[in-house]
Design goal:
The complex is a heterodimer of chains A (about 625) and B (about 350).
Chain A lengths: L6 H10 L5 E5 L2 H10 L9 H17 L9 H7 L1 E4 L5 H12 L5 E5 L12 E4 L3 E4 L2 E4 L2 H8 L11 E5 L7 H9 L13 H10 L2 H8 L3 H24 L10 H22 L4 H7 L6 E5 L3 E9 L6 E7 L4 E5 L3 E8 L13 H13 L18 H12 L8 H46 L10 H6 L7 H9 L8 H12 L13 H16 L11 H12 L5 H7 L4 H19 L6 H14 L3 H4 L2
Parallel strand pairs in A: 1-3, 1-4, 2-3, 4-7
Antiparallel strand pairs in A: 5-6, 8-9, 8-12, 9-10, 10-11
Chain B lengths: L2 H10 L2 H8 L11 H11 L4 H17 L5 H6 L4 H6 L6 H8 L7 H5 L14 H10 L3 E5 L6 H14 L3 E6 L2 H15 L4 E4 L4 E2 L5 E5 H13 L9 E6 L11 H10 L5 E6 L5 H11 L4 E5 L7 E6 L5 E3 L16 H13 L7
Parallel strand pairs in B: 1-7, 1-8, 2-5, 2-6, 3-5, 6-7
Antiparallel strand pairs in B: 3-4, 9-10
Classes of the chains: A alpha/beta (about 625), B alpha/beta (about 350).
Chain lengths: ~625, ~350
């Protein structure tokens, strides 16, 4: 079995069942064109009346748009009563097909699912062959809205009693998506509000900065953010209700108090192995038990060689040189007296922790010491280390927690209360973020525009800002920066049109194209460099050199016909038309800069005039 | 109940119920399959058969009380039909499928019947169209109706009314191609001199009472007006019609619709025409919030020409897609058995069966 029904058979079946006229949505332009080609060999004969009607309608449209007279599909359409309608066609051809459908002259039209919105004509039947479409290089399932938009073309008011949506499988189909889409509710729409540079400039031209926030608050984006805020606020209310039983106790903010108290207790804990076994006087002495210090121990005297902590308990230890030259490792608590006498001690990193000569010298010194030595008076502090601890513990002293009557309640409720309180704070923060996010984004844009010199420090338009606000198209920052960099100094219309085309064109459909002039290559190189440097502030355009070259050729060579141009490239006529239409749109924005950049505006005007010929003249 | 009867009844139950029954009777019951489980249950309860039977009855009744997502079991369940009806109607699709079983699926002949051209009738506007026009006299209006319901009629009538009052009308569309189509269409209706079109670099009949343009052009006009340079008579502007307003959600261009609506002059009425969307009330509420005039919503989901869905197999066999002739809204699983069978066949043959 073939993966999908043959187009000729499909149309034949529809005809046989009286389901024509039909719109058949296919996956791609190529699929539409191939479907048309498959009819070339078919032996379909149309009733004479229908053939005459098609010819009549086509003649009418040709009168208005002479360009379609040479359309390659003209003959096929008249012979078989089937046409293709997709973005690769010229608008005039699409108008012709639409007119044929409106008059009910055709049996079927092949269209692409991607451009279903542009299919503005009804039929009795709509045939769907896929359940996903290519969006941004990825296939996504059709949404219920999109499926209903497709199916919505079925059933002509006043001409049909019923409309039909027929699904025929192809390798790109998931029936569930389609049945759910047909029977389901259309999806809610969401605001896609973004803050653009021209928006900032135009708003600041008309309103002082203080008013902007209230204008942004009028956006649908803010309306929908407010809806989310409302949900959060309801949640917040219920959280506050949950907090109710944890209201003020003995102290007004008992959660914080308890938290600090707990922290203090927790912070003390890990230190306890160090300090637990140390009595205050031992701890105080530790500082003095440095190598070379003479100390008194329970029996006799000794000299400290090193101080360290025991491995397991972290108990303070010392290595002691005793009278008689013996080396002992003993706890620091063995020291009873610290004498005011030290000897030089050359330390080493291993046993016996000083050079052998030092050991000999110290043994000697120790034996020579007078029986009475001045004792170092050592002050014992309660907590001589950890200044943080002491501060907390000092504040702890202010707390009544340890002796408070509600201590047990606090201890019991604290985990839940603090969790609820955290939730409340998180919600408050989210609400604030939702309410101010647009304004923040606006301010970010202001900062960028200020840095580039379109706004002054008071967010007022500078001279550059005054004209830059008239450029209200995509990539406006790149274009205004190019103008300021005088990239278009005394530019020729073809070159200007070419650069604008490369900025305007956002389709990555590959194709073969004529080469551009050396001047264009150099200029595009500069444009690309600038676009890359602006990338942090504005997504760079594709800047395709090939479409630029095509545009340059069209503007420079006034004798070139549309057909001749189409032969230079593999780009579809519809894409060429769209490229030029968009380029004209961009150029017409430059035309508005007459007051400040007369030569540029003049060049743009000339470029537009040069571009508008042949097919491009047919439609406004 | 004989052992055989009991065994039969047990085999009809879903495994989950058997596991619940096995709790406390059989150790490690979760390891066994259904057949084994039934055997074990029968063995284990050899001495206490009535106990098992009563527990089983209790569980079956309990099961009948709540919606059950397993149609195969439901069919086999010996519960009376009445109790099934009494159960709260859940939105589970299988439920609907089950209801559908009461009626035989629509035949192809029935499905295809009624094709034809309605007899020519004098045009009578639909109730919603009348309603929309009446509301527009007082308020802004958002219209969200299915494609092909006749939004253009509302646009034309509203325009004619504004023109009679010597007010300017602006009609915006998202695509230049659509602008051109509408320009032709409206020129036919109002006469060529009455309709103008504005694009980036061209203007035809810019002084006409009805101006057609893309939304971007209107946005630029409004910015120019706010900036103090104005070249189109916005002060006499009486009505702004925005076609295909669902473009508000377009990732790239949606912002232009928002800007336009925010800066739209307050004396002009707004008429937003949109295909069916999920939350048109939000848009109406939003406009009510930001504009001095309130905004009404006209919404309906019923198509003016009824729609039927079909399935065409690659071997040219045509069947209805759903069990019902029309679209079973909210019940996507009410598939026609023939369409289901053919599609499964298709998936098997093309070797890309999706487990559904």
């Amino acid at each position: 079995m073939p993966p999908s029904i043959h187009p000729v058979d499909l149309v034949a079946t529809l005809r046989q069942r009286h389901l024509t006229p039909a719109i058949i949505f296919l996956t791609s332009r190529r699929a539409c064109d191939e479907a048309m080609q498959s009819f070339e060999r078919s032996q379909v004969t149309l009733p004479t009346a229908q053939r005459e009607q098609i010819a009549r309608v086509l003649a009418q449209v040709t009168e208005q748009f002479p360009s379609i007279a040479e359309h390659p599909l003209m003959e096929t359409v008249q012979r078989i009563g089937v046409a293709a309608h997709h973005a690769g066609h010229l608008p005039s051809w699409k108008i012709a097909v639409e007119e044929l459908m409106r008059t009910g002259s055709l049996d079927a039209v092949f269209a692409t699912t991607t451009l279903a919105a542009g299919v503005d004509f009804p039929a009795r039947t709509v045939v769907v062959t896929q359940s996903s479409i290519r969006k941004a290089r990825d296939f996504t399932d059709l949404t219920a809205s999109e499926i209903q938009q497709l199916a919505g073309r079925a059933g002509r008011r006043g001409k049909d009693l019923v409309g039909f949506a027929v699904i025929t499988p192809s390798p790109y189909i998931d029936l569930t998506v389609l049945t759910k889409g047909l029977t389901g509710q259309p999806e809610p729409i969401h605001s896609q509000f973004v803050i653009t540079y021209p928006m900032v400039l135009n708003l600041l031209k008309a309103h002082p900065r203080e008013q902007i926030q209230s204008i942004l608050a009028k956006s649908f984006a803010q309306f929908q953010l407010n809806q989310r805020t409302a949900v959060l606020e309801t949640k917040l209310d219920s959280l506050r209700a949950e907090m109710e039983p944890f209201g003020p106790r003995v102290c007004s903010d008992w959660i914080t108090q308890w938290q600090v108290f707990e922290q203090a207790r927790k912070r003390k804990k890990p230190r306890s192995p160090f300090t637990r076994q140390e009595s205050p006087d031992v701890a105080a002495r530790l500082h003095f038990l440095t190598p070379g210090r003479v100390v008194g121990v329970t029996r006799g005297r000794g000299i400290i060689l090193r101080q360290y902590r025991s491995k397991g308990q972290h108990a303070p230890m010392v290595t002691l040189l005793r009278e008689g030259g013996s080396l002992n490792e003993c706890p620091a608590s063995i020291v009873t007296q610290v004498f005011d006498r030290t000897f030089d001690c050359e330390e080493t990193s291993s046993y016996p922790w000083c050079t052998p000569e030092t050991v000999d010298q110290l043994t000697h010194h120790l034996a020579e010491l007078p029986p009475r030595l001045p004792i170092l008076p050592i002050l014992t502090h309660q907590h001589e280390d950890a200044p943080i601890d002491s501060s907390i513990v000092q504040t702890l002293g202010d707390f009544a927690c340890p002796t408070c009557p509600s201590r047990q309640a606090c201890q019991r409720d604290f985990p839940r209360a603090s969790r609820v309180r955290q939730e409340i704070q998180r919600h408050i923060k989210s609400i604030q973020a939702l309410q101010t996010s647009l304004w923040h984004r606006f301010q970010e844009r202001i900062d960028v525009l200020e840095r580039f010199g379109y706004l002054n420090a008071n967010a007022q338009l500078t001279a550059d800002g005054e004209w830059a606000r008239l450029i209200r198209i995509d990539h406006s920052l790149l274009i205004t920066e190019l103008i300021r960099a005088e990239a278009f100094g005394a530019i020729d219309p073809p070159l200007l049109a070419a650069v604008m085309a490369s900025i305007a064109h956002d389709d990555d459909r590959p194709g073969s194209f004529p080469r551009g002039s050396a001047g264009l290559v150099t200029l595009l190189f500069q444009v690309r460099k600038l676009a890359e440097s602006l990338a942090p502030h504005e997504a760079p355009p594709m800047l395709r050199a090939d479409v630029a070259a095509l545009t340059e050729r069209w503007v420079a060579d006034q004798t070139l016909t549309w057909i001749g141009l189409a032969r230079l490239t593999t780009m579809a006529e519809g894409d060429m038309f769209r490229l030029f239409a968009r380029t004209i749109e961009f150029l017409s924005q430059l035309k508005t800069l007459k007051a400040t950049h007369p030569s540029l505006a003049e060049s743009a005007e000339k470029a537009i005039a040069a571009m508008r010929r042949g097919v491009l003249e047919e439609l406004p | 109940m004989t052992t055989n009867e009991l065994e039969h009844l047990l085999m009809q139950q879903p495994v989950s119920l058997l596991h619940r029954l096995a709790r406390g009777r059989i150790s490690r019951h979760f390891r066994s399959g259904k057949r084994k489980l039934v055997d074990l249950l029968l063995q284990a309860s050899a001495e206490n058969r009535p106990g098992l039977e009563s527990d089983l009855q209790a569980l079956i009744e309990q099961q009948a009380q709540r919606p059950q997502p397993q149609p195969a079991v439901q069919k086999a369940r010996p519960a009376p039909a009445g109790s099934r009806q009494a159960a709260p109607a859940p939105s589970r699709h299988h439920r609907h499928e089950e209801h559908g079983h009461h009626e035989p699926p629509v035949s192809l002949h029935e499905w295809l019947s009624g094709i034809g051209v309605p007899p020519p009738q004098p045009f009578v506007p639909d109730a919603w169209q009348v309603d929309a026009l009446a509301k527009l006299a007082e308020t802004d209006v958002v219209v969200s109706v299915p494609t092909g319901s006749g939004k253009t009629y509302v646009a034309i009538e509203a325009t004619a009314r504004a023109m009679r009052e010597n007010r300017t009308v602006i009609y915006t569309s998202p695509l230049k191609a659509l602008s051109n189509t509408k320009f032709t269409e409206f020129s036919r209706v109002f006469g060529p001199g009455q309709v103008g079109i504005l694009t980036g670099d061209r203007r035809e009949h810019a002084q006409a009472p009805l101006l057609i343009m893309t939304t971007e052009i209107l946005r630029n006009l409004l910015y120019d007006a706010a900036g103090g340079e104005i070249d189109v008579r916005l002060d006499t502007l009486g009505l702004v019609i925005m076609d295909e307003s669902q473009y508000l959600a377009d990732p790239e261009r949606g912002v232009v619709w928002e800007e336009t609506l925010i800066f739209c002059p307050s004396q002009a009425r707004l008429l937003l025409l949109s295909a069916s969307i999920g939350n048109p009330q939000d848009i109406a509420d939003w406009l009510t919030a930001i504009r001095p005039t309130p905004c009404s919503l006209i919404r309906h989901t019923k198509r003016s020409v009824p729609l039927r869905a079909g399935y065409l197999h690659p071997n040219e066999k045509l069947t209805p897609l759903f069990r019902t002739a029309g679209i079973p809204y909210g019940q996507p699983h009410l598939l026609h058995p023939e369409a289901k069978r053919l599609f499964m066949e298709y998936e098997e043959e093309t070797g890309q069966a999706r487990s559904r």
